[in-house]
Every structure is written in C-alpha cells, then in structure tokens.
Design a protein that fits this description.
The chain is an all-alpha fold. It has helices at about 5-25, 25-35, 40-50, 55-65, 70-95, 100-120, 130-145, 150-160, 165-190, 195-200, 205-220, 225-250. The relative contact order is 0.21.
C-alpha cells in the first residue's frame, strides 16, 4: 500500500470503531464493506478488519475476565467453525465473478444483517434452546467466512440472555477474539499465504481503532442510544445500497 491507501484504511477502521463505540455495533459492517468498495480483495479486507480490533477485545476480556465462562465460549466458538469453511467457499466462488460482483455481494450481505438487527428483537430469558444456539453460531461462522460480518447473529443470541451488561460484552469479545485465528487459517487455505501478510499488516492499524473509539465513546455518553442506533443503521444502509448499485452508477 502507498501512503494514501494507508491513511484511507486507517480512517475506515477508525470510523468503524467510532460507529461501534457509539452505537454498540457496526465495526465490521462499516469497515469491511468500505474496504471492499475501495478496491481491496475480500481476503485482504477480512483479515485487516478482524485482526486490527483484537487488541481492543483482549483489553476488554482482561478487564471483565471474572464474568467470562470460558467453557461455554469455547463450545460456542467451535460451533461457528462448522459453517466457516462453507462461508469461505462461497466467498471464493464470488471472487471469481469479478470485483463488481464482490462489492455487490458485500452490499447485499450488509443490508441482510441490518434487516436482521432491525427485525429480530429477542426477549431476554434464562436459557436459549439448543437449536437456536446452533443456528445463531453457524450463521455467524458462515457470514464471517463469506464477508467478515458474522457478528449480528451472535450478538442477537447473546442479547437473548438475561445477562449483565459486563457478561454480555465480554462473551461477545471472547467469541470474536477466538474466531480470528480459525478465520485466518481457513482463508489462507483458500487464498494462500497473502492472508497472513494482510493480517500482519493490520497490526499497524490498531492505534487507528483505539483513536476512533474515543469520539465514539464521547458520543455514546451524550446522545441517546436509540438515536445513535438509527443513525448508524441509516448510514450503513446507504453504504450497502451504494455497494449494490455502484455498477449502474458508474456505468460508461
């Protein structure tokens, strides 16, 4: 990457971190889609997005480690691995269709997960039935492999539990952190060693993720969460629609 690309990637990751810190979701949805729109191959965008945020997750896990049930987290992460290879296989098939179709796929995936977040409002309970657990984790694994946006199904599953805010957040951080290595392994089996090169390069962007979180937290403390959620969803929908329609917008 040249200097201009480095700056743009840093801004995209900082923007995703800002959205996530303010609204409580949206980091991968925002960052992965924009990186693909900027011309990055999916097997570059997904490692960049996944690895750059891991430091933030590790800090959160350490801070709330007493709330974490490691046995449960390992089992949940293992379930995501069942569908991850299939998601990467779909991604590989899509990349063979050309860059425009890849961007449209990411836009469609973004809109799909936004609809999921808007429509599905799970009622907190003490126990979620096993079939729903398997479905949510497998959906998260598939989407992680196919477009790097596996968070929403897992978030909805966690939100369906009557847990404290701390346990909710640390469980999500732990699952996402544990998923990073398997995602990189499966991607590298399909796309080669370049996946590890992008993953290593993404470590340089960890400061951008941290910096982006600062104004996000400031906004989150001053603007009502429902309003921030609506703003984030509207912004992400515009990005998704643009990704789908860009072949027509720039035709000729």
């Amino acid at each position: 990457m040249d200097l201009s690309q480095v700056v743009l990637v840093a801004l995209v990751l900082a923007g995703g971190s800002l959205v996530q810190s303010a609204a409580g979701f949206g980091y991968a949805l925002f960052s992965a889609t924009l990186l693909v729109l900027m011309g990055f191959a999916p097997h570059a965008a997904i490692p960049i997005v996944a690895v750059a945020v891991i430091a933030q997750a590790v800090v959160g896990i350490w801070h709330h480690r007493k709330e974490l049930q490691w046995g449960m987290v390992f089992k949940l992460t293992a379930l995501t691995m069942l569908s991850l290879p299939f998601g990467v296989w779909v991604l590989g098939m899509t990349t063979e269709l050309g860059p425009e179709r890849v961007r449209q796929m990411f836009g469609a995936a973004l809109l799909m997960v936004l609809v999921m977040l808007v429509v599905l409002r799970p009622r907190p309970r003490d126990h979620v039935p096993a079939p729903w657990t398997v479905a949510a984790m497998c959906a998260g694994g598939f989407l992680s492999g196919a477009c790097g946006m596996g968070g929403p199904p897992i978030v909805l599953w966690v939100m369906a539990h009557r847990w404290s805010n701390e346990q909710t957040r640390v469980t999500l951080w732990a699952i996402f952190a544990l998923m990073v290595l398997p995602i990189l392994v499966v991607l590298s089996l399909r796309f080669g060693v370049v996946v590890w090169e992008w993953a290593g390069l993404s470590l340089l962007f960890i400061p951008a993720v941290v910096v982006g979180a600062i104004p996000g937290i400031w906004l989150g403390n001053r603007i009502p969460k429902p309003l921030l959620r609506r703003i984030a969803i509207a912004l992400l929908m515009l990005i998704g629609l643009f990704a789908i329609g860009q072949p027509l917008l720039f035709a000729g």
